[in-house]
Specification:
The protein is built from two helices and five strands, in the order H-E-E-E-E-E-H. The protein has helices spanning 23-37, 286-291, and strands at 127-129, 147-149, 167-169, 187-189, 207-209. The longest helix is centred in the N-terminal third of the chain and has 15 residues, at 23-37.
Length: 327
């Protein structure tokens, strides 16, 4: 009966050094774990602590709430597996295939997931501390209410990822693809997004403080009611963005392209707009621009060069001007 469990029939014969556990033992282990999940008296929780399962295939396997601490799964295939609530602290899953895997509520502290394929995965409510996800593919993944502390997602693919109400502290996203990512109500602090592609990303109601978005591409993004205080967007391209009711207190937008953006109700006190291109920007008031820092290299909404002079009318976009985006 154990050999018919999902995924085990696809386990390949070991090549080179044998797996620590034999196939029949694994089948029995999963059978007992399934019984444990069903609260059967004969059930035993799966514990693979320290085991090596490189290149193994556990397609659709149910390892929910299992103990997989310090396991090694290099290049393994766990597609569609159920790992919800599993303990994967210090596990090594570099290069593993985890398509559509359920990792909701899992413990991923100090887990290695570099170059792992996690497209469509569910990582909601997971705990990630010092987790490595460099060059991983998380396209379309769900990380809602996930906690990420000092995690490294350099060059990761996060297109369309859902980060609703996630909490991120001191994380590294430099070079990541965040196109159409959703940060709705997320809380992000002291994190680095240098050179990311976050076009059409949604930061509505997010708190994104003391973060670095320098030289990023963020055109078409939404920052409605977001708190971007003290974050830096130096030389970023943020054309056609929506900053209505956003807080940009003390934010650094030096040299940023902000053409055709919407700024109704935005708080710009002490924001650095030197060298910024605001050509065609809408809904800015004289009071808003007077509170920000501008200089002769600032291009104001009217097309005139700064610094902004109160009640000069330069806060109003000139009709008929075709913005030339300055990179």
């Amino acid at each position: 009966m154990g050999d018919s469990l999902p995924g085990l029939e696809t386990l390949p014969a070991p090549a080179g050094p044998p797996l620590t556990l034999q196939h029949r033992q694994l089948a029995r282990l999963l059978e007992l774990h399934q019984a444990w999940l069903l609260n059967t008296p004969t059930g035993v929780r799966a514990d693979l602590t320290g085991q090596t399962l490189n290149d193994a295939r556990f397609l659709q396997a149910n390892l929910s709430k299992s103990i997989l601490k310090s396991t090694t799964w290099l290049d393994a295939d766990l597609s569609d597996a159920n790992l919800s609530g599993a303990v994967l602290a210090m596990a090594d899953l570099r290069g593993a295939t985890l398509s559509r895997v359920d990792l909701s509520g899992a413990d991923l502290e100090r887990t290695r997931l570099d170059r792992a394929w996690l497209a469509g995965a569910n990582l909601s409510e997971t705990v990630m501390q010092d987790t490595m996800l460099r060059e991983s593919n998380l396209s379309g993944a769900r990380l809602m209410e996930t906690s990420l502390n000092q995690c490294d997602l350099t060059d990761a693919k996060l297109k369309g990822v859902s980060l609703h109400q996630a909490r991120m502290f001191s994380c590294q996203f430099s070079g990541a693809l965040l196109e159409e990512a959703v940060f709705y109500h997320a809380r992000v602090q002291l994190s680095r997004f240098y050179g990311v592609n976050a076009t059409r990303a949604n930061f509505t109601n997010a708190t994104v403080q003391d973060c670095n978005f320098n030289k990023s591409e963020m055109s078409g993004s939404k920052f409605n009611r977001a708190d971007l205080s003290r974050s830096t967007f130096g030389h970023a391209v943020i054309a056609d963005a929506d900053f209505r009711d956003a807080r940009l207190l003390g934010s650094d937008l030096y040299g940023a392209v902000l053409t055709r953006g919407r700024f109704g109700g935005a708080q710009l006190r002490a924001a650095d707009l030197r060298g910024a291109n605001l050509l065609g920007a809408r809904e800015l008031t004289s009071e808003q621009l007077s509170q920000a820092r501008t200089d002769q290299s600032t291009i104001l909404p009217s097309g005139a060069h700064g610094p902004y002079v109160r009640r000069s009318g330069a806060e109003r976009p000139a009709l008929g001007i075709q913005p030339a985006v300055r990179l």
